[in-house]
TrEMBL record:
Gene3D superfamilies reported in the protein's UniProt record: P-loop containing nucleotide triphosphate hydrolases (3.40.50.300)
Biological process according to GO: phosphate ion transmembrane transport
NCBIfam families (UniProt xref): 3a0107s01c2 (TIGR00972)
InterPro entries named among the record's database cross-references: AAA+_ATPase, ABC_transporter-like_ATP-bd, ABC_transporter-like_CS, P-loop_NTPase, PstB-like
Cellular component terms per the entry's GO annotation: membrane
Protein name in UniProt: Phosphate import ATP-binding protein PstB
Residue ranges occupied by any ABC transporter domain in the UniProt entry: 13-255
Pfam families hit by this protein: ABC_tran
Keywords: ATP-binding, Nucleotide-binding, Transport
Lineage, broadest ranks: unclassified sequences, metagenomes, ecological metagenomes
GO MF term set: ATP binding; ATP hydrolysis activity; phosphate transmembrane transporter activity
Source organism of the structure: bioreactor metagenome
Amino acid sequence: MEDINYNGNKPILQLKSVSVAYTPDKKAVNEVSADVFPNTITAIMGPSGCGKSTLLRAINRMHDLYPSVKTTGEILLKGKNVLQMNPMEVRRMAGMVFQQPNPFPTMSIYDNVLAGYSLNGIRLNRQEKDRIVEQSLVSVALWDEVKDVMTKRGSFLSGGQQQRLCIARTLALKPELLLMDEPTSALDPISTNKIEELLLDLKSKYTILIVTHNMSQAARISDNSMFMYLGNLIEYGNTRHMFTKPRNKKTEEYLTGVFG
């Protein structure tokens, strides 16, 4: 792991022997350990069913919704073990953006941005709300496109705009970490390009983990990459190095299209 991009910083996220099991005898993620550094984009790659999304969802405690799913090991976010924290606090610190844009369909664009505050019972005055909404929408390059239609429903927007709205909703809570589960797979190429440009801009303020099936996307935007196979972390390193000189035979086979 000596070629990881870390810019001399301490890791913001540490995965220590993290396993996730859907049944007692079947681990979807098996003893994964890795350090993730601030202000980087880390791509998590691998074939379908390899544990990518399962690992991502473990980080912000999504598996708590299913009592039969067991997560073990340590997931340290800024030194705190998220498995021992209040799940709502974890989800504020580690915001999740999903594959399909999912603005709340009955809420206005304005209220969608503030949904995290409403769900957490946090009261804000109108001036605070206006400031958070504008800042969040500016940060995803959506403000100029929607500032005159703020009372319209989020579902009024195009798919790419909806996804940027969902990112703004996550950023409104000032997270430490952005977790993105194939956020462009349902979008057209132009919208995908806008989201990729947005992520490259956001990494100056945030740390981003992105699950992607798109190896070209990983090559374009990520600093570091994890390659997972059958629940195991096979290789983790600098993206450019991994794509040009993978250390593991299985990584090379995946990147050259032998399987996937």
